[in-house]
Write a structure and sequence with these properties.
By secondary structure, the protein is of the alpha/beta class. Helices cover about 40% and strands about 20% of the residues. The strands form two sheets. Strands 3-5-4-6-7 form a five-stranded mixed beta sheet.
């Protein structure tokens, strides 16, 4: 395990790397963290696409080489300054091949936050 966390501190052992799941698809999904990747799996957004999990937006540079091979790059990044900056860098590098999928969860911090919110809504509807 490369992460150290508690309520007061979050950190990791260096070096932190990206995770590339290569399914041989021409489309690739990009996530900031692995929990967002798992959330996309639960929501059915991965759909056989290749996937890159950055494990931190600071690893974006490590993802540029593998991303250059894809015709479509679906970005499920956080709705914060770091996520928007990463999206802008990817758009500068790859142009219109980059799609901003954070529009699917505009009122949420990230894809996992969105999944949690819809799961809670579904559970509250089941209670009598």
């Amino acid at each position: 395990m490369d992460k150290l966390r508690n309520p007061y501190w979050k950190g990791a052992y260096p070096p932190k790397c990206i995770t590339h799941i290569d399914n041989g698809n021409a489309r690739c999904n990009v996530f900031e963290g692995f929990i967002d990747f798992l959330s996309a799996e639960k929501l059915g957004y991965n759909d056989g696409n290749d996937n890159i999990v950055l494990n931190s937006v600071s690893n974006l540079g490590k993802a540029l080489t593998p991303l250059s091979d894809y015709s479509v790059i679906n970005c499920y990044l956080d709705n914060d300054d770091a996520g928007r900056a990463a999206l802008a860098k990817l758009r500068k590098e790859f142009g219109d091949r980059v799609a901003d999928r954070s529009t699917l969860y505009p009122d949420h911090k990230d894809l996992n936050d969105y999944l949690v919110s819809i799961t809670l809504k579904q559970k509250s509807k089941l209670k009598f």
